[in-house]
Amino acid sequence: MTQAEIKLCSLLLQEHFGEIVEKIGVHLIRTGSQPLRVIAHDTGTSLDQVKKALCVLIQHNLVIYQVHKRGVVEYEAQCSRVLRMLRYPRYIYTAKTLYSDTGELIVEELLLNGKMTMSAVVKKVADRLTETMEDGKTMDYSEVSNTFVRLADTHFVQRCPWVPVTENSDPGPPPPAPILIISEKDMYLVPKLSLIGKGKRRRSSDEDAAGEPKAKRPKHGTDNKEPIPDDGIYWQANLDRFHQHFRDQAIVSAVANRMDQIFRSLPVGYNISKQVLDQYLTLLADDPLEFVGKSGDSGGGMYVINLHKALGSLATATLESVVQERFGSRCARIFRLVLQKKHLEQKQVEDFAMIPAKEAKDMLYKMLSENFISLQEIPKTPDHAPSRTFYLYTVNILSAARMLLHRCYKSIANLIERRQFETKENKRLLEKSQRVEAIIASMQATGAEDAQLQEIEEMITAPERQQLETLKRNVNKLDASEIQVDETIFLLESYIESTMKRQ
Amino acid sequence: MAGNKGRGRAAYTFNIEAVGFGRGEKLPDVVLKPPPLFPDTDYKPVPLKAGEGEEYMLALKQELRETMKRMPYYLETPEEKQDIERYSKRYMKVYKEEWIPDWRRLPREMMPRKKCKKAGPKSQKAKATGKGASLTNTADVLKKIEELEKRGDGEKSDEENEEKEGSKEKNKEGDDDEDDDAAEQEEYDEEEQEEENDYINSYFEDGDDFGADSDDNMDEATY
Questions:
Q1: Where is the composition biased (Basic and acidic residues) (chain B) (predicted)?
Q2: For position B19, what pLDDT does the model report?
Q3: Is the pLDDT of residue A223 over 90?
Q4: Mind telling me how many Å the CA of A491 is from chain B's nearest CA?
Q5: Do A219 and B188 touch (CB under 8 A)?
Q6: How far apart are CA A393 and CA A335, in angstroms?
Q7: Comparing C-alpha atoms, which of A84, A195, A184, A90 is closest to residue A147?
Q8: Do B101 and A54 touch (CB under 8 A)?
Q9: Does residue A16 have a pLDDT over 90?
């Protein structure tokens, strides 16, 4: 794991789970697999806290355990899974577009809690949806169940590995840790439950919320005295399935853009007849993007979507775009040229790009120094003498993609740090504003006059309001940037993964 | 390859023009300090994508961040002792739901060790549910085994171990319905336990175990 990735993991863990979990998580990412006591010793944390942290990390599928010989259990962190936390908003939003609010909340609960039983999810989601409905209306469990089943059928949620049910034939002492198993055929098997019920509204706790001291924790779980029918059967979000969807979306939208361009150059005809469709497909197949390939003529021609090439095109487009935005359009022209011609000499670049020599050299070296372009040496003589060697500029897409990916991780880490800095700088003001809002809310609930409300609102001065506005705007921008950089990360990672699989 | 350097005159081994500047041309000054932290960029960044989806995801992201902080998975760092103990702090603690992991899915060493055994109301509650075995027993048994192992006692402890292993195995089966109840009793935070107990903590001193006293007696007996 690169330093940039570790740094990003550290920021993510700390934001979501606090410093203790961050310390343990980062330690495991750095050092690899370790047993409990070594972790405690190396991090200088108490055993109790390490256990709590590990429980949280395991619950969220960020750490796995393995039993080694002599009964020693070792814990290993999954760095790439930690990085997925950046993508949670996208997973949830996708679920919303596919399965509307119910689907959205199901996926959100699963992501927030790591793993849950189906009955727990259904109940929680029904409660949440009921809160948003009009008075008197409730969400039925069956509707939520149905959506859950659909999500399972389309593999967006899957079962977690489970403890196998063994008869008590094992006479020896129980193992130090349960061995969890997983079987393909059962992974999306929904247990036969008859969940009957409706969502409940939280009793309006406006009176309770404000000042009631809760010195003792109320016993939770007093609501459900019934046994859990699907106890032990846990579900998690299937991130790979979401990734498949994103990839398909990316390709479709890229093709759609292409189709738009082609369509505009063709005579307008709204009824797409079979012939025209055939034309379209042929165009796509001939298109240099190479998304669609024609394989054979059986059945009038079989068309195949070449996924790897598609991902490669997307990655290349990303690289081109970055070069254009960072170095200018002339640099981008050179970049595209080298990409197209694979290998070019200095002189050839100047000629083809029609850019004066000095500028061309300057641009090439700039791109070279940032590793978008690399040099390929081709010696003419066995002694590799520089005066008798060809130096060719080339773009190695895989290594350029890796370089860009690394920069993306750094970028997001910077974005997060800046956002935390901005928030910290204005902490006092934020707290004041929150207090004022709370006061206003409670006053409104008890029916205060407008004049009184206005008085409270004026506790925040105009320049302070301005400051808050600016802060909000900046934080929004930083957050939105994080989300967008993650899109690029997804594209690049998909391409790199696809390439590595073929090797 | 050591080429012949002409007497005193530098002769390049490669075509100097290919590098990009001619002989004797003025080169840029040597850079004596690290590049600036925030260099000026010639090209301004492209504006962010703005659309319904993006806005929704932004709102989601910020909400998730807040929600995460309130979940039981967010482990607060224990605060350092403050100069003045503020009375109000005690009553403004944020209410956090408790989370008990499913111990069946975790290595045994994950379970927290408790210093004082909870007698009385809690175990009565377990019996009241009508089932014979309960996970609280299992937890205590596990804890005892580990403690005994630590002491490295003689044969007596081994016997006890086997006994307890046997009962534990029995307990593990068909235990599903117990999970919730037992889980409730097995409170994660020791501080909270102390508050909810009616028992005076000084009854049990550190290092002592409720059932351990009998063990000590037995050990002495074997001498």
A1: 141-155, 164-173
A2: 57
A3: no
A4: 16
A5: no
A6: 10
A7: A195
A8: no
A9: yes
Distance CA A485, CA A408 (A): 7
CA distance B158 to A97: 60
What span, in angstroms and rounded, lies between the C-alpha atoms of B2 and A394?
Answer: 30
Distance separating alpha carbons of residues A346 and A53, to the nearest angstrom: 56
Q: Which helix (H) or strand (E) holds A400?
A: helix A397-425
List chain B residues with CB under 8 Å of A177: 106-109
pLDDT in tens, A360-393: 999 999 999 999 999 988 888 888 887 788 889 9
- Min Cα distance B60 → chain A (Å) is 6
The CA distance from A496 to A406, in Å, is 12
Query: What is the DSSP code (8-state) at residue A387?
Result: G
The string of pLDDT tens digits covering residues A239-276 is: 999 999 999 898 888 877 777 666 665 555 444 555 56
Nearest CA in chain A to B177: A227
B112 or A442, greater pLDDT: A442
Residue A206 has pLDDT above 90, yes or no: no
* Residues sharing a CB contact under 8 Å with residue B86, sequence separation 6 or more, in sequence order: none
Is the model more confident about A81 or about A309?
A: A81
Partners of A181 in beta bridges: A162
Taking a C-beta distance cutoff of 8 angstroms, is the pair A428, A401 a contact?
Answer: no
The mean-pLDDT minimum among A75-84, B53-62, B134-143, B167-176 falls in B167-176
Residues 183 to 222 of B: which have CB under 8 A from any A CB?
183-184, 188, 192, 195-196
Structure tokens at A61: 């599928």
Hey, CA dihedral for A52, A55, A56, A62, is it positive or negative?
Answer: positive
- CB contact (8 A) between residue B184 and residue A221: yes
Q: Does B108 touch chain A (CB under 8 A)?
A: yes
Rounded-to-integer distance, Cα B158 and Cα B144, Å: 12
- Higher local confidence (pLDDT), A274 or A415: A415
The token pair at B57 is: 């995801």
Give one word for A61, left, alpha or beta, with left for phi > 0 and alpha for psi -120 to 50: left
Q: Across all residues in chain A, what is the average pLDDT?
A: 84
**Selection from A336, A428, A411, A328 nearest residue A373 by Cα:** A336
- C-alpha A448/C-alpha A442 separation (Å) is 9
Q: What percent of chain B has pLDDT over 70?
A: 33
